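Subject: for your reference before the review

Hello V.,

The reviewers asked for a structural picture of the protein, and I figured it would be easier to keep everything in one thread rather than splitting it across files. Below is the amino acid sequence we used in the manuscript, unchanged from the supplementary table.
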Amino acid sequence: MTIRPKILLTICLIACVAPVLAVEMPIAMDFPNHLARLWILAGGHLSGPLAYVYQADWTNASTNIAVDALAALLTHLLPLSIVTKILLILLFAGPPAMAAVLHRFVFKSWHAWQVSFFILTWTTTSVAGFMSFQIGIAAALAAAVIDLRLPASAPVMFLRRILTGILLMLIHPFALAFFIILAWGLEIGEEGFLPFRKDRLLQMTKSTLMLAVAGAIPVLILFAASPSPPGAHASTGPFIQWIISAKDIFKSIMSPFITYHRGFDYILTFPLLAVLLWSALFGKIRVHFGLAAAAGVLLLLSVIAPSSVGDAFWLQRRFPLMAFLTLMAAVRPELGWKRRRELAMAAILLTALCLRALWITGVWWERQKDILSLYEATQNIPAGSSVLPVLQLAENQRKTPVGRFVVGAPHTKHEPACRHLPSLLVMKRQIFIPTLFAVSGQHALKVLPPWKEISVSASSVPCTFQLSAPDESTLQADPYLRHWRLRFDYVLIFNADLKGHPKFSTVPEGLMLEKDAGYAKLYRVMKPPDKQKKRLNPF
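And here is what came back from the structure prediction:
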């Protein structure tokens, strides 16, 4: 490896890591909720009143558990703040970095094109804070590199892939699926089936079947041996849902490029597509046929996959990132220039990456004010209080500050990127909220009685208007809203600094404002006199 690629990749890594290090908490929708769970699993709650509310139960989960276990272990060796940064770096930079490594070993050299992978550090699924999914994707790419670099006899390879599959299944089911598809593409090879030979076709058929069996065995073991397999949590709707439209298919395919603002995202990722287009028109592209076929399979799944299966959601947003990373690893553009002018491609891609990193840093830095507002609004709240976080809908969603919404979410134009920020208060203020992730089969967290009566294992967080008149579908998803006045001490309204929607932002009667911190407003629930002594909270 020459000094030039070393410098380029070092700059890429710095650009990807810098935004995470520059702020206290990046705006990654689900991550604060995951972090609060990890803090509990590591025993951070045991010295306060939450010891009687939450409990670690490792038998409650079978998949999505490896990252939790590793993070809980690390918190006994390192401060939580450092563990948090490690997880965030793996979440954001892990997938593109490992895809670049795969590209290097597929084409047997470092290349300026590998800079482009890091532009996909910030995607719809990464800013959605899908921690185990993102880290699982990076692990699958790493496993594919090992599979490529360490050839072995067929029986040894088969056994190794089963063991790899079990480990990846513990991280995330999509990690296992991604690895099997990548391994299939690498088995096909760069030349594919050309020149066509019958024995080659027979060999590939056999390899495909062996890979399918190697991928199925970890799944069968999981469902046969685990006390809480995935899907044990009952879904509030149909087990499998397809919500597909031409517009949403386009959004799904473009999701690897979309974060908080489509206009900026398209502009800052255009150089990546421009290099490919220029290379196709005026240069040449070297293609690894097997990985390109794997990318095609993943792209097809992006279009036809259901929107949800059981308690797994956003499925149509998960395949496109895997598809694009695989496609980028499958091609090597040559611009038709002299070798010394290859620096031009690196400069274009590196400039796009650095501009994107600066823009993301600016968005995250600005949104730190929202987190500080949450802390200010709750600074005098007693530990052990039960708090109901609700979101205020703005009158004009288009005019909300950049970073408040994830714009690449399915079936909606504006998915609140801040919806789980109140989960940070579980650690900061030692309070109970009803929406910590505790899905049976996925999370090793248990909510103890009687708190379990007013909690849900997963929630999108209700809106202000749903406090006054929750409909049946809302009560089915969030049943704690039925008697919230009797069961909660406080209501925390966030996104409250914007002009609320006149029909959907009225604060219910019976709430007394305790603290107005702009973005966050804390209200005390005024209970009927005969109910004031019957608080659920024993503290």
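For the response letter, the relevant points are probably these. The longest strand covers residues 511-516. The chain has 18 helices and 13 strands.

Happy to draft the paragraph if you're swamped.

O.
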